[in-house]
Design brief:
Blueprint (H helix, E strand, L loop, with lengths): L3 H4 L10 E4 L7 E5 L30 H12 L3 E4 L21 E2 L2 E2 L8 H28 L5 E8 L2 E2 L2 E2 L4 E4 L7 H8 L7 E3 L11 H7 L5 E7 L6 H21 L6 E3 L6 E2 L2 E2 L3 E3 L7 H21 L5 H8 L3 H14 L6 H9 L3 H8 L2 H5 L6
Parallel strand pairs: 2-3, 2-6, 6-11, 9-10
Antiparallel strand pairs: 1-3, 4-5, 7-8, 9-11, 12-15, 13-14
Helix pairs in contact: 2-6, 4-6, 9-10
């Protein structure tokens, strides 16, 4: 069987990898649907599978496209819908995720995905995956430029049973560390009589590199993933009913959520340094800052602080302790602790030389006042 790169030019797919539903950025919402369709270009020969395999959950999220379209219409919100099967490449996975292109799904071998070379993987990323994510970036930027950082809602569906075990939830809300949308949305959905609502069910929302991690977590935008049980939305009537229910719940949450449009970096449970959660950062207004940028800015600010303290050698450690509760030796101790957390052996003297810009004894001899030397000081 020929690979896509061998036979499929960039214009042979016959359609864009995604489609847009126009909406008003003033709604403050952006709706996404990663697994809406089961489309595979003819050049891939159905990846070696039978036609009926493309009507299973392994190929797409059944019923969710219809719900997404109706929900966007009811709310007047923009939406982006992927138009290729997750079997080709999964847009809801990070590029380093081993399930980005599945070789086995639900016990079924995908012949057209076995043994792919780097060129074919790169082709699928470039032709299908990245255009969809760039469209999401553009939609987010449009909201930011309008002064309304969008709340992101990602739509999915799940099977009514897994390995013979029924799933009782009608709807689930998946989330990571940012509670701004998830918690009030869970509360609103629980007001619907006669249904069971899952909190991070039937899956966990803690998946590094997925769509919401990439566009919500790292940008500091409020977000949540909604999962609907497929047997409830296979018919047009079921899709309309659930779109209406979700529209009511989301409208209530949006009206009452004062912090939903702030840019806040809550981090992720999947981001850690030696088991410790990454610190959160809050940024109001339209500022967008990913984790890498934040770390770079904090490092630059720390270097500026060291330079300032070196210039102000007239300010003694005891003065810093009395006025601010820390001194140069505190900084060196914190530096040493951070190094140890990274597995870097750093002595106390080495850490102090980094902070003081010279050996500690040399700094004391040159700059520490005699009266201060005799004072009882935290500087030691």
């Amino acid at each position: 069987m020929e690979r896509g790169l061998d036979k499929l030019s960039r214009d042979d797919f016959g359609q864009s990898p995604y489609r847009s539903i126009a909406g008003d950025t003033a709604t403050g919402l952006l709706i996404l649907c990663d697994h809406a369709e089961n489309t595979i270009p003819e050049a891939y020969g159905r990846l070696g599978l039978k036609p009926e395999d493309f009507h299973r959950h392994i190929a797409y999220d059944l019923g969710i496209a219809g719900v997404t379209e109706r929900l966007a219409s009811l709310l007047g919100a923009p939406a982006l819908i992927a138009q290729f099967s997750r079997l080709l490449i999964d847009p809801n996975r990070g590029l380093d995720d081993p399930t980005l292109i599945m070789q086995i799904s639900d016990g079924l071998i995908i012949p057209g995905n076995v043994g792919l070379d780097e060129n074919e993987i790169a082709f699928r990323v470039d032709r299908f995956y990245e255009p969809y994510h760039r469209a999401i970036d553009r939609a987010i930027e449009a909201g930011l430029h309008a002064g309304r950082p969008p709340v992101i809602v990602s739509m999915h569906s799940f099977t009514q049973a897994w390995k013979g075990v029924p799933r009782p939830w009608s709807v689930g809300v998946l989330w990571d560390k940012d509670p701004r949308l998830a918690l009030p949305l869970l509360a609103a959905l629980r007001e619907i009589p006669g249904i069971e609502v899952g909190d991070n069910e039937p899956y966990s929302g803690q998946l590094k590199g997925d769509t919401l991690y990439r566009h919500g977590t790292t940008r500091g935008l409020a977000h949540a993933l909604i999962e609907l049980r497929q047997d409830l939305i296979l018919s047009e009537g079921g899709q309309a009913e659930w779109a209406e229910r979700l529209a009511v719940a989301l409208s209530k949450v949006m009206r009452e959520g004062s912090a939903l449009h702030a840019v806040e970096l809550h981090g992720s449970h999947t981001d850690s340094a030696h088991g410790r959660p990454t610190a959160s950062t809050s940024c109001q207004g339209g500022l967008v800052m990913d984790e890498k940028t934040r770390n770079e800015l904090e490092a630059a600010a720390f270097r500026r602080l060291l330079a300032h303290l070196r210039e102000r050698s007239d300010v003694q450690n005891i003065d810093l302790m009395e006025l601010a509760g820390f001194c140069r030796n505190c900084l060196s101790n914190w530096y040493q602790e951070a190094a140890e957390a990274k597995g870097i052996k750093l002595t106390e003297d080495e850490a102090r030389e980094i902070v003081y810009g010279m050996p500690y004894d040399a700094w004391k001899a040159k700059f520490q006042l005699e009266s201060k030397r005799k004072a009882k000081s935290h500087a030691g």
